[in-house]
């Protein structure tokens, strides 16, 4: 299938404008994501409908805590990614084409089949997740538009490297996004992800200005992105540029893929980051990968009442009423139903 968002150049080269890499691709070659190929001056997507995953997940697993808490989301992915994170949690599928000489696998699936599967499973949304949804943008586009027509919401779980052009196309049919803000250091992005920081910040600002529901996740890696100054700058960026109501998820790192020389994140470090976020003025800061902590609950920013109690990906109770705290009436950021 012909790809979206590219332009033809001289000598049958093309420039892909789907993400901030803006790869210039010679005939017969692929972009950095390894799933878009120049075929004689025409850019083709190699993964349209070739799903490597299709699962029913709690929406909290994305993680999204402020979009219809407790509902199930039908989660899909193809292989491929436009980052090369050394700590990739899903490297077996995200890095498959890069690590296996361009190999692309997946079960051919039509957008209507995804929508029907989501509805049959009682899901309220479809999440484009596990790998980077930007690289299967055309399939996201077709599926999400049909999903909206059928009353489903659409979620991106993304590294935030999509181009402004792609985000503009998506803004009318994507309802919510969880964006990995992996660190607040350009050197970290260059060394460990093969990308840059500023485009991710730009995407986050654009998402918020488009009124998309946005939550941010940072995986805390010992010795790499956990120093106090960097965490303070990251939290301050969220508070100042995205708004203090924007949820920040602080997740625990476990050694994986090509970054196995670091220990798991300590609980003390997670709590330190949580405290930094709260001091920066963030209303909703959550710890991840450590179930049973009070920091995974939602509290009213106005009166401090416990509104949603969680255990891991499960909801024990939710007392938000019509999007507000029942005790003080403060509106809570997000999309909610009565508890």
What does this structure look like?
- The protein is of the alpha/beta class.
- Helix content is 25%, strand content 23%.
- The protein folds into two domains: 6-45, no CATH class; 50-318, Alpha-Beta Barrel (TIM Barrel), CATH 3.20.20.70.
- The protein contains nine helices and 18 strands.
- It has an eight-stranded mixed β-sheet with strand order 7-8-10-11-12-13-14-15.
- The longest helix has 15 residues, at 228-242.
- The chain starts with 5 loop residues before the first strand and ends in a 21-residue tail after the last strand.
- 47% of the residues are buried.
What's the helix and strand layout?
Blueprint: E1 6-8, E2 14-16, E3 24-25, E4 36-39, E5 42-45, E6 50-51, E7 53-58, E8 72-77, H1 91-94, H2 96-99, E9 107-108, H3 111-120, E10 125-128, H4 137-149, E11 153-158, H5 164-170, E12 176-180, H6 186-193, H7 198-209, E13 213-220, H8 228-242, E14 248-252, H9 267-279, E15 285-288, E16 298-299, E17 306-311, E18 314-318
Parallel strand pairs: 8-10, 10-11, 11-12, 12-13, 13-14, 14-15
Antiparallel strand pairs: 1-2, 2-3, 4-5, 6-9, 7-8, 16-17, 17-18
Helix pairs in contact: 3-4, 8-9
Short note summarizing the structure:
With 339 residues, the protein is an alpha/beta fold. It has helices at residues 91-94, 96-99, 111-120, 137-149, 164-170, 186-193, 198-209, 228-242, 267-279, and strands at 6-8, 14-16, 24-25, 36-39, 42-45, 50-51, 53-58, 72-77, 107-108, 125-128, 153-158, 176-180, 213-220, 248-252, 285-288, 298-299, 306-311, 314-318. α9 links the parallel β14 and β15 (285-288).
